[in-house]
Amino acid sequence: MALSDFDLVLFGGGGDLSMRKLIPALYARHRAGDLPPSAQIVCVGRHPWSDAEFVEELNRNAKPNIGEKVFQQEAWNAFCASVRYVSLDATNADSYDPLVDLLRNDAGLTRVFYLAVSPTLFASICHNLHRRGLATEHSRVVLEKPLGRDLASAKQINKEVSQVFKESQIFRIDHYLGKEAVQNLLALRFGNVLFEPLWRREWISDVQITIAEELGVGNRMGYYETSGALRDMLQNHLLQLLCITAMEPPLSVGADAVRDEKLKVLHSLKPFTPTTLSRNVVRGQYRAGHVEGKPVPAYRQEKGADPDSNTETFVAVRAEIDTWRWAGVPFYLRTGKRMADQLAEIVVRFKPIPHSIFAQSTNSFVPNCLVIRLQPDDGLQLNLMAKTPGDGMRLKPVELELDFAETFKTPRMDAYERLLLDVLRGHLTLFMRADELEAAWEWVEPILRYWEQEGNEPIPYTSGSWGPAAASALIGRDGLQWREEVLPE
């Protein structure tokens, strides 16, 4: 589907997210021929750079984040020629004059305002765009996370932004929903007859959703110290993955059809009480250790860290969904930094066989499970039991694997590439609705309040491990184990 002409205004255009993800994604789509030749990209920041000086910044900070297979100097030069830079104070409407002058005065032109800035600036920017007549009926606004610190602040953001833009113009982005494997989860569930009869409590033992990072906080300490793993990862990425895994079949892939079903899942999550919180939530913080054979410091020893910080870098949660389909099936959500490996995956583990006819010839049975890998490589893996070659009837776990890169030879889009194209096309399916955002915060907020009231410190775990031992105990109380703990040697 060809894109119509547009002006895209990137607030925070000189920031880390823009240089690492957004500019490379826009360049990749330019290189692929998706962007109209007359499209205009305007990067906004506070530094008093000229267009030429900003292109130098792009060469220094954005260009290294473009893969060698995608980069082509001539295409990069043409892309940079379409980029403009504007310096302004986002909180001062009078300083928007250069932006007003630069944007084309075409009432039917698509305008996208991408707010890759602190959420404290969302309201000011939206109101200033309105005051200067830049927010038209053909405008769209993209909001980057974190979308609030709690339910009250999320509601306030929604209220302020909705005073300028209609809900159909607001794109609350979660880049995990743009990943190829997440799209394939929808295809797997609703494009095949094979799994749907099994996708329920009668056949599924548990579901594990893990987002693990080997990296520490890096240069994000200022943000992370006020956020932590729960706000940074669980409230958005993990809950969105849970919703897509657990939702009922939507009427279509239309935006509201899909988001209605995700909302039902969020409303069906069993609320926490002080008693269930103490048993079903694990909070951790990494200490010194080794990652990939190299020593790394503790979180409290990282540059800019509070030496007495109680910010969590790990969280594991046992969740339950009170619906006919999922009653009694535990969902385990886990995320952490400085972990043993970098991966993001959804593991749907099926129940054990009811009776073994191979009891005397097979040492142990590994339950069948479906693994949807999101990173580092997208793919699907189905674990089965099979007979080993040779005499006798001995069974061994085997894997049926689909590697998307190997199966589909065409270049794959990065998550931000796909989501940016959806914004430009006006497709809202992969973006959160206001009620979704608030429902997610409503479920998560009791965890935050519990931690604040109890004042408990996070459990230390060694960098390069899979987190605190309490996380293994959390799942172990149900007689289960995390996937890496049951993988055969």
From TrEMBL:
Domain Glucose-6-phosphate dehydrogenase NAD-binding: 9-184
Single Gene Ontology BP annotation: pentose-phosphate shunt, oxidative branch
Active site residues per record: H237
Catalyzed reaction equations: D-glucose 6-phosphate + NADP(+) = 6-phospho-D-glucono-1,5-lactone + NADPH + H(+)
InterPro entries, per database record: G6P_DH, G6P_DH_AS, G6P_DH_C, G6P_DH_NAD-bd, NAD(P)-bd_dom_sf
Enzyme Commission number(s) from the entry: 1.1.1.49
GO molecular function term, any single one: glucose-6-phosphate dehydrogenase activity
Binding, substrate: H175, K179, E213, D232, K337
Annotated Glucose-6-phosphate dehydrogenase C-terminal domain residues: 186-483
Name of one Pfam family that matches: G6PD_C
UniProtKB keywords: Carbohydrate metabolism, Glucose metabolism, NADP, Oxidoreductase
UniProt pathway annotation: Carbohydrate degradation; pentose phosphate pathway; D-ribulose 5-phosphate from D-glucose 6-phosphate (oxidative stage): step 1/3
Signal peptide per UniProt: none
GO cellular component assignments: cytosol
Binding site for NADP(+): R46, K145
Enzyme superclass (EC): oxidoreductase
Function (record text): Catalyzes the oxidation of glucose 6-phosphate to 6-phosphogluconolactone.
Similarity-based family: Belongs to the glucose-6-phosphate dehydrogenase family.
Matching NCBIfam families: PRK12853.1-3 (NF009492), zwf (TIGR00871)
Name assigned to this protein: Glucose-6-phosphate 1-dehydrogenase
